[in-house]
Every structure is written in structure tokens, then in C-alpha cells.
Amino acid sequence: MDLELTADQRDVAEAFARVFARDSSAERVRAAEASGFDPALWKALAGMGAVGLTVPAGAGGSGGGFVELALVAEAAGRRLACVPLVEAAVAARLLADAGVADVAAEAAGGERVVVFAARPAVAGVARLVPAGAVADAVLALDGDDLVLAAGAPGQPVRDLGFQAAADRPLRGDGVESRVVASGAEAGELWTRSRDRWRLATAAACAGMAAEALDVAVRYAAQREQFGVPIGSFQALQQPLADAAMAADGAVLVAREAAWRHDNGLDSWPAAAAVAFAHAAESAVRCAELCLHVHGGYGYTLEYDAQLYLRRAKATRLGAGDPDLLWEQIGATAIGKGAP
Fold first, then answer.
1. DSSP letter at 180?
2. Which of 2, 155, 180, 298 could bridge to 305 as Cys pair (CB 3.0-4.6 Å)?
């Protein structure tokens, strides 16, 4: 296994890091916080081909791999980007895999906001879909059918990581549904996409963890008590060191899962589950420590620490109960199930 980035991959990472630093500043995030969606950032990313990064060139994409998508997602996570990059990229690739060429090309180019629902629908409703309040259409598993449902955006759920999350009905009045696949094919397509969502979201969480830790370290270096920076106190140095190991590990397991995927290894779905579980947990851990380092200031809206904690907690719940996922990972490790 070689996780060393190629020159082209480093260029991708650096280019998108610059874009997010410019177009997803703390001020821009706060401006988009109420809606959870930044149209200008979405337009910029679509223009750079981010949404169609893993879609084959013949289907309107760039033909890149999931390592490249993970690098872009990591940069997006660092800057708390208010766009459904991962959900849209996974949806575009799913549509291409399913042979829905017309919608795949539109989704890959960002002309339509089509997002993937990482949990099966319940009673014909996809629950708490990121960007469900702004998306033109949602791809979700409804029973034995994989459905592309277009309709009016849902009502956003407040205080859920400013991700424009909303419930989306997949059938009924005002909804135009299209069955993309049925039966075993639908289950296979959705499960593969869910695993891809996990590995790309793991990368976003790794970016969140790294940046939340950086925010904490910068504050600890400048805030003084008893005439010295608080970062000189061992009571802060130890937890910061532990969090740094968790954050570095999150980056590594996310990139490893993407590498396994792009190299066609059968182990990539299990690696994606581990990557998501660990990276999401690490993002929450680093964000909580960031609040702790800031003391009472961390709980105020004027400081950015609370933004990272809110996004991290919401993202961790995006695929359901985190403890259940860890149980499934353990069962897989001893040969009793699949995550």
C-alpha cells in the first residue's frame, strides 16, 4: 500500500484548498448558516468539476478517482463548506453507474443539485437528507427500488450542523419519481454508494478534526494566564497531543479507504466503514477539545469553535447510530456480518 500522493493529486489538493480558503471563509460560512447552502461556492466548485470528479468522462465527468474526491472533501471539511459536495458527487457517480446518462451529466456539471440519501427511506420519506432543503432531486432507497425523486425542497431542520438537512418525500403529490433500479440491482447500487459516501464523508470529517485542532492550538498559543500561554500547561498539552493522533489517524484511514477503492480491493467497503466511524468520532473529539481550550468563549457564537462542534456532531449522525456502526464493524472483523 502506497498512500503517498502523486504530483497531480497534490495539485488537486492545493487548488481546492485555495478555493475553499477564499470562498468558504468563516464570514461566508456564517452568512450561509441559516440556509445551509452557499450558491456562489456551489457554482465555483461545479465550474472546477468537483461534483463530477469521479464520474467517467463519457458520462459528463472528469474520470478521476475517490482519492481525489477524498482530498477535495478533506479541504471542504476544514472550511465547513456549506455545499453538499459529498452527497452530490456520490449521487452523480451512482447515476452514471446506473446508466441514467441524461441526469448524470446534469448532476456532474452541477446544473441540478442531486443528492444521495445515506439511509433507506422510511414509509416513502428520505429522512434528514443533507441539502434536502435545497436539492432539486434526491436519490434514495425506497423498499426494493432505487428512486430519483424530484420535487419541492423540504423544510430545513434547524441546528443540525447548518447542512440544509430536510426530509424528502419520494412519492405523492408534487413529487416526480423515477425508478432507477429495482430488486437486487437497486440494493447493490445503493450499498456501494453508501460505502462511497462513508469514505468521502470520512475525509470531510478528517478535515474538520484537523482544522478544529489547529484552531485550538492557535488559541492556546496566544491566550495567556499567569503571564504565560495556556498552551504551556501540561493539562492542555496532553489532550491536544492525543487529539492530534486521532486527527492524523482520521486522515490516514480515509485516504486508505479511498486508495483501496480505486485499486479495486474487496476490502474497501469495510475500510470505508472504519474510516467513517473513526473520522466522525475524531471530528467530534477535536471540536469538543477546541471548545474546552477556549473556555467560556468557546460557547459563544462570536467564536468559531461552536461551528465545528455543531457540524461534526450532525455529520456523525448522518448514517444513523454511531454505536451500531461500531458493532457492525466488530461483527465484520470476526466474520459475522457486513458493516
1. E
2. 298
Q: Which amino acid is present at 245?
A: M
Q: Is residue 147 part of a domain?
A: no
Give the whole-angstrom CA distance, residue 96 versus residue 93: 5
Instruction: Say if 160 falls within a structural domain.
Output: no
pLDDT tens per residue across span 213-235: 999 999 999 998 999 999 999 99
In a domain, 193, yes or no: yes
Using alpha carbons only, give the angle 84, 146, 58 rounded to the nearest 5 degrees.
Answer: 65
Return the CATH number at 234.
1.20.140.10
pTM: 0.95
* Number of domains observed in the structure of the chain: 1
Nearest by Cα to 128 from 273, 278, 318, 275:
318
Asked whether residue 239 is assigned to any structural domain, the reply reads yes
What Rg do the C-alpha atoms of the chain give, in angstroms? 20
Cα dihedral 40→125→74→65 (10° resolution): -100
**Virtual CA dihedral for 320, 326, 328, 331, nearest 10 degrees?**
-170
Cell for 200? Answer: 468521502
Domain extent for 216: 187-333
DSSP one-letter string for 113-152: -EEE-SS--BTTEEEEETTTTT-SEEEEEETTEEEEEEES
pLDDT tens sequence across 196-206: 999 999 999 99
